[in-house]
Write a structure and sequence with these properties.
The complex is a heterodimer of chains A (782) and B (73). Chain A has 34 helices and 12 strands. Chain A is an alpha/beta fold and 782 residues long. Among the domains of chain A are: 168 residues, P-loop containing nucleotide triphosphate hydrolases (Rossmann fold), CATH 3.40.50.300; 87 residues, Helix Hairpins (Orthogonal Bundle), CATH 1.10.287; 155 residues, no CATH class. In chain B, strand 3 and strand 4 form a beta hairpin. The chains are: A alpha/beta (782), B alpha+beta (73). At the A-B interface, helix 3, helix 11, helix 12, helix 13 and helix 17 of A face helix 1, strand 2 and strand 4 of B.
């Protein structure tokens, strides 16, 4: 049978490094059931029968944070054969606190005393042998970063698992509390698993809500226990939870006083302290933060020569998936005599290749971004970001670390959503995932360009308003959402460690980068590819004069495309007869025509903007591309013109060179303008900026939420928010500019504004149980 | 009652009692701020909140509102 070994320890204790060292490349990365907490598992190198389970980094086994609940649930329910407890040797006191709790689980254990090289460098001395004796648990020295000692740790853990030897563990609970716990143990005997008798007794003494619930004790027993607790609390004049915590730390202080000698005098600054004095300085802190954020943005997202991320993604999109891959498939398909225009060709080239391209196109930029974020995390700057920004972001219910996803989302929402991974608190993380794609990303810029150019004479105010609307939506949504039950409760206590700075490890950073990129490809990929194929199918197939097939092909059949049919189609689709295109007959056009009335109240209830909005789900820049097709910009009909001489262009073979639609669609501005009024155009833009993001971003949201309900809630919220804002823009804005008179629309619009104001100022849901997001794991909780 | 919130930057104080209850109190104690612990106030964030402390040999940040629950001498 396989041996299961759990890896437990504080955040920043080097747990991930040890895990990677032990398991190499054979890892499985996923999520714990139903929550956004990452779960990693792997097989020990050289031992196929040993599974190493990496638990989330935690400080305690309290019932209050998701990571802690996930960890204790695993330890109590899965009963691993041994625990490797990794302890940061430079910060022994606080790290041993978790150790004292792990020891109560009566699972064989080995302590890996990590960063032993740093301990020595600092001139600290740890008497490992004495520590081992006092804790009754084997202590192994380790430098995970240098790979020293990890083999030893693994072997000792396997030995402990096989022998089942628990060692002679100290009894931490002394005095009145110890007696009370002993008495509770007597009461519990036979009612809980013998192995976890002490654990359960202590949890009961602490009034740990989750453990108490799981024990399902009858009222008499509970009353009996309660009277024991109350007696003890009275005697010690403190609550039972605090009594236990105090006893633990007292024990640790006693142990470390005899086994650890600090080399540095009290108050002397380490190098890390000196760096931090400058980096989070009261005066320099914000400017330094701004510079670092600007650099990240510039390298990953910007459009300058140092913007490696943008260059790499452009290359992937334009060259690899714009030319090479389609070219390669063209020749493969050609060799198989699958011709352009056939269903299979369309499915492969326009459906699958384009869909996979849409997924992979984001990856280079994402990897560059994640590389930078991993470096910041590894250095220890990420927690300083929260330290510096906390004051601003908590005003609207987000974490200080939400700044980074929002910033990144101005380039692309996909890595923006993924960047929320660095936020520890699940509530803040969900809220950030839900709102971060409100930022106008790079692909939304052509929409802004089109509307600004076609309707507003290129006014820069339109673009400015787009950013204003995006940022405003994030802030308002933060305030509104945090009042709902699902997000309510006290925000997670912001009691955060500021780890010492250290030089990042190359392999660690590269590995973290790759893991995130790969998990996006794997989890989000399927959503994007399937959705792209569906949209391809809907836009290429349709019924022409009673015959179903690919519309482009059917339109070449003179017998089908009769004059009456075209006239009828033009009438149905509300387009001039000479502007009818094959796409007018597609299923997508039919869907657009049916759905269009939904957008009537927003002022653009025409099927064309509707279809453009739908194709925007594939990628937001498609909105403009679809407009090009629908407003009959036909590259085949318009020959390119030399900009200087005004002459028609021909290539070297004498064939005419066809014009391409520019990114902002200048060529169709006149036609688009006919279908819009200024306010309906603005409403269209608002809706498309804020509504459900592209499939790639939806895939990322799904991957981060790890829960279908939350994913739908996020997309639903965004779409409703977009609709409401677009409605107000068109109806109320229209009255203000005098575009249309005061009527029902304006009344509803004003009512909606009042509703938003109400949601902003109302007294929100007051939670009694502080961590609402824990409910999803309640069922499994210890 | 003097609390950690009123403690000047650069001062070292001793924890007397933790007020409040529930998760915040537990978290503060889990992180090592218990009765009798010495706490050194390192600095305030650029915007004045949260504050950075040195406890048990490591750096910890707490919001001013939570620091107000920690009675010190």
């Amino acid at each position: 049978m396989d041996i299961k070994i759990a890896l437990a320890g504080n955040p920043n204790s080097g747990k991930t490094t040890l895990f990677n060292d032990l398991t190499g490349s054979r890892q499985y990365v996923g999520n714990w059931p139903g929550v956004t907490v990452e779960k990693k598992e792997g097989r020990l190198k050289g031992h196929d029968d040993v599974i190493i389970q990496d638990l989330p980094g935690i400080y305690s086994l309290s019932p209050y944070t998701l990571e802690e609940v996930v960890s204790r649930t695993y330890l109590v329910n899965e009963k691993p054969d041994a625990i490797i407890n990794i302890v940061d040797g430079t910060n022994i006191e606080r790290n041993l606190y978790l150790t004292t709790q792990l020891m109560e689980l009566n699972i064989p254990m080995v302590i890996a005393l990590n960063m032993i090289d740093l301990v020595r460098k600092n001139g600290d001395r740890v008497d490992t042998k004495a520590l081992s004796e006092k804790l009754g648990v084997e202590v192994v020295e380790l430098s995970a970063l240098k790979g020293e000692g990890s083999k030893d740790v693994a072997e000792k853990a396997i030995a402990a698992a096989k022998s089942g030897n628990l060692g002679n563990r100290p009894n931490i609970l002394s005095g009145e509390a110890g007696e009370a716990v002993k008495a509770i143990e007597e009461i519990l005997k036979g009612k809980v698993d013998d192995k976890f008798l002490t654990w359960n007794a202590i949890k009961l003494f602490e009034r740990d809500s989750k453990a108490v619930k799981a024990m399902k004790l009858d009222a008499v027993t509970r009353a009996e226990v309660e009277s024991l607790i109350e007696k003890c609390e009275k005697a010690l004049d403190d609550d039972s939870e605090s009594i236990v915590t105090n006893l633990r730390y007292n024990e640790i202080t006693g142990i470390t006083a005899e086994t650890v000698k600090k080399g540095r005098a009290k108050g002397e600054l380490s190098i890390s302290d000196k760096i931090d004095r400058i980096v989070t300085n009261r005066v320099l802190g914000l400017p330094i933060f701004a510079v670092i954020m600007f650099l990240i943005y510039a390298i990953a997202m910007g459009g300058w020569s140092i913007s490696i991320g943008t260059a790499a993604t452009d290359f992937t999109n334009d060259v690899i998936f714009g030319e090479w891959v389609p070219g390669l498939f063209d020749s493969i398909l050609g060799a198989l005599s699958i011709t352009e225009g056939s269903v299979l060709y369309g499915l492969i080239q326009d459906g699958i290749v384009a869909g996979v391209g849409a997924v992979l196109g984001f990856v280079p930029q994402m990897l560059v971004l994640f590389l930078l974020l991993s470096i910041l995390e590894d250095i220890g700057y990420m927690s300083r970001v929260a330290f510096v920004m906390d004051r601003i972001f908590r005003q609207f219910g987000l974490s200080g670390k939400s700044f980074i996803p929002c910033l990144v989302a101005t380039g692309c929402g996909v890595p923006g959503v993924m960047a929320s991974r660095t936020i520890e608190n699940e509530r803040d993380r969900r809220m950030t995932v839900m709102t971060t794609t409100f930022m106008p990303c790079g692909a939304k810029l052509p929409i802004i360009g089109l509307i600004a150019g076609a309707i507003f004479g290129g006014s820069p105010l339109v673009a400015a308003s787009a950013y204003f609307i995006g940022i405003g939506s994030i802030i308002l949504s933060g305030i509104i959402l945090k009042k709902f039950k699902a997000f309510a409760g006290q925000p997670a206590p912001f009691v955060m460690e500021l780890p010492a700075y250290h030089i990042p490890s190359l392999t660690g950073v590269l590995r973290a980068t790759w893991e995130r990129g790969w998990s996006f490809i794997k989890r989000a990929g399927s959503v994007i590819v399937i959705s792209s194929i569906i949209i391809w199918f809907l836009s290429s197939f349709g019924t022409v004069n009673g015959q179903f097939g690919m519309v482009d092909n059917l339109f070449e059949d003179e017998n089908l495309v009769t004059e009456e049919y075209v006239a009828d189609l033009a009438d149905r689709m509300d387009v001039p007869v000479e502007d009818v295109t094959p796409m007018d007959a597609s299923l997508l056009a039919g869907v657009g025509n049916t759905v269009a009335p939904v957008f009537k109240p927003l002022g653009f209830g025409n099927w064309k903007p509707t279809v453009a909005t739908v194709t925007g789900l594939v990628a937001k820049e498609e909105v403009v591309g679809t407009f090009g097709v629908l407003y009959n910009f036909d590259g085949h009909a318009e020959q390119a013109v030399d900009e200087e001489t005004g002459e028609l262009l021909f290539d070297e073979n004498g064939e005419p060179v066809m014009a391409e639609l520019s990114e902002e669609g200048d060529e169709i501005w006149d036609r688009v303008a006919k279908d819009f009024t200024p306010m309906s155009a603005l409403a269209f833009m608002v809706f498309n900026l804020l509504c459900a993001p592209c499939f790639a971003a939806i895939g990322a949201i799904k991957r981060e939420m790890n829960n279908a309900k939350w994913t739908w809630a996020a997309i639903g919220y965004m779409t409703v928010w977009a609709y409401v804002l677009a409605f107000i823009t068109y109806n109320v804005g229209g009255v203000i500019t005098g575009e249309h008179g005061f009527g029902l629309g304006a009344i509803v619009g004003i009512a909606l504004i009042a509703g938003i104001i109400y949601l902003l100022v109302r007294k929100g849901y007051q939670a009694d149980d502080s961590v609402q997001s824990l409910t999803s794991v309640n069922a499994n909780a210890a | 009652m003097k609390t950690l919130k009123d403690t000047a930057v650069g001062e070292t104080v001793k924890v007397v009692k933790l007020h409040g209850e529930g998760p915040v109190k537990r978290r503060i104690m889990d992180m090592g701020i218990t009765k009798g612990t010495e706490v050194y106030v390192r600095k305030l964030a650029p915007l004045g909140d949260p504050m950075e402390l040195n406890v048990r040999g490591y750096e910890l940040s707490v919001r001013n509102a939570d620091a107000a629950l920690i009675e010190v001498e």
